[in-house]
Write a structure and sequence with these properties.
By secondary structure, the protein is mainly alpha-helical. The protein is built from 15 helices and no strands.
C-alpha cells in the first residue's frame, strides 16, 4: 500500500491508486474497518481541537477573559454575559459553521472533478456568488434575504455556465477546472466594474465585503445562512453513499444504482448552496474550500475526499484563521479572508509544485 500511494496523480489530479484503493476497501472487511476507525478517531480529535479553539476565541476580546469566566457567561452568570453570548459567540459560531460549509463544498467539487484544485474559489463559484451579492446590494438594497438569494442565484448561474461549457465530449475534471479558472477571472473583472460604477458608500461597503470578514456578525444576520447550511447538511447526509460510489468512477457508481445525472445535479446544488450561504453573510472567504478537503483526507487516511473530515478541517481552519486575524495586529482586527488568503496561497503553491513533480516522475 505505501509503495502504491507514492505513485502520484493522473491527468485529472487524482492519486493514481484512488480507484484501486477504494476497490480494496470494498472487498477487504478488516482493512475497511481500519479505515473507518481512523476516520472516527481523526474526526473526534478534530472536534476536540475545535472545542478548545472555540473556548480560546470566546476568551479573546479587548482583554483576555479566563475560561472559567467564559463558561460562566455561557451559563448566564457573571458580568460578561452580554459580551460573550451576544458579541463573541455569534462570531465563533459563524467561524465553525461557515468553515464546515466551505470544507464540505470543497469536498463536493474535488470529488466531482477528481482534482485537488476543484474548489469553489478556484473554479469561479465564489466569484459568481459575490456577483449576485453585489447586484443585490446595488439594485435591491441588500436585505439579508436579498443577499442570500442573490448569492445563491449568482453561484448557480456560474456553476451552470461552467458545467455546460465543460460537457464537450463528456464531463472532464481538468476541462471543468480550466474553464472555471477563466470564468473566475471574467467574473472578478465584472465585480470590479460593478464596484467602480456603484455609489461611493455602496462601493466602500462592497470593497470591505470582498475581503471576507466575520467582524460584527450577530445572530439576526446568521439565522438564515445557518438554516440554509443545516438543510444542505441533511441533503449531503442522504447523498453520502452516492458520493462515495461516485468517487470510484462513473461505471462503478452506475452499476451500484447511482443515477448519475440526478446525483450530479443535487450535489452541485448542495455545493453551490454551501458556498453561497457563506458569501451572503461574510463575503467570499477563499482557500478554505481548497485546503480543508485534502488536509482532512490525509488525516482520515481515506481514498477519495470524505466530506466529514473536510467539514471539520474547514471549521478548524477558519476558526484558527479568525483568531489569528483578531490577534496579529491587535487591537486592529483583520478580515479573516486576508489570513486565509495568506495561508491558502502558500498551500496552493505547494500543491502545484507537488503535481508538477508527480507528472515529471511519471514522464
Amino acid at each position: 500500500m505505501k509503495g502504491a500511494a507514492a505513485n502520484g496523480v493522473d491527468a485529472d489530479g487524482v492519486d493514481a491508486n484512488d480507484v484501486a484503493t477504494n476497490a480494496v476497501v470494498l472487498r477487504a472487511g478488516p482493512f475497511s474497518a481500519q479505515i473507518e476507525r481512523r476516520l472516527l478517531v481523526s474526526s473526534l480529535i478534530l472536534t476536540a481541537v475545535i472545542l478548545v479553539l472555540a473556548v480560546a476565541a470566546l476568551c479573546r476580546g479587548d482583554s483576555w477573559d479566563s475560561p472559567g469566566e467564559v463558561l460562566a457567561a455561557l451559563a448566564g452568570y457573571g458580568d460578561s454575559v452580554l459580551v460573550v453570548r451576544e458579541w463573541r459567540l455569534p462570531r465563533v459560531a459563524a467561524a465553525i459553521v461557515f468553515g464546515a460549509s466551505l470544507g464540505a463544498a470543497g469536498a463536493i467539487f474535488q470529488n466531482l472533478t477528481r482534482n485537488a484544485l476543484g474548489s469553489p474559489d478556484v473554479i469561479g463559484l465564489d466569484a459568481g456568488a459575490y456577483t449576485g451579492v453585489l447586484i443585490a446590494i446595488t439594485v435591491f438594497g441588500g436585505t439579508a434575504a436579498g443577499l442570500a438569494l442573490g448569492s445563491l442565484a449568482g453561484g448557480l448561474l456560474a456553476a451552470a455556465a461552467i458545467y455546460l461549457l465543460s460537457l464537450r465530449q463528456g464531463l472532464s475534471g481538468i476541462r471543468l477546472i480550466v474553464i472555471g479558472i477563466a470564468a473566475n477571472a471574467m467574473l472578478t473583472a465584472l465585480n470590479s466594474w460593478i464596484v467602480l460604477r456603484a455609489e461611493l458608500d455602496v462601493a466602500i461597503a462592497a470593497t470591505g465585503w470582498s475581503a471576507g470578514s466575520l467582524n460584527g456578525l450577530d445572530w439576526n444576520e446568521l439565522r438564515l445562512p445557518f438554516l440554509i447550511i443545516g438543510a444542505l447538511a441533511v441533503l449531503l447526509a442522504f447523498l453520502s453513499r452516492a458520493m462515495h460510489q461516485s468517487a470510484l468512477g462513473d461505471e462503478v457508481a452506475a452499476t451500484s444504482g447511482v443515477h448519475l445525472g440526478r446525483f450530479r445535479l443535487l450535489i452541485v446544488l448542495a455545493g453551490v448552496g454551501c458556498t453561497a450561504a457563506v458569501t451572503s453573510a461574510a463575503g467570499p472567504i477563499v482557500f478554505v474550500a481548497l485546503a480543508a478537503p485534502q488536509i482532512g483526507r490525509r488525516l482520515a487516511g481515506a481514498a477519495g475526499v470524505p466530506p466529514l473530515p473536510a467539514a471539520l478541517t474547514g471549521a478548524l481552519l477558519l476558526l484558527a484563521a479568525d483568531l489569528a486575524a483578531q490577534t496579529v495586529l491587535a487591537p486592529v482586527q483583520l478580515p479573516v479572508g486576508v489570513v486565509t488568503t495568506a495561508i491558502g496561497g502558500t498551500y496552493l503553491i505547494w500543491l502545484l509544485v507537488k503535481e508538477v513533480r508527480a507528472k515529471e516522475m511519471r514522464a
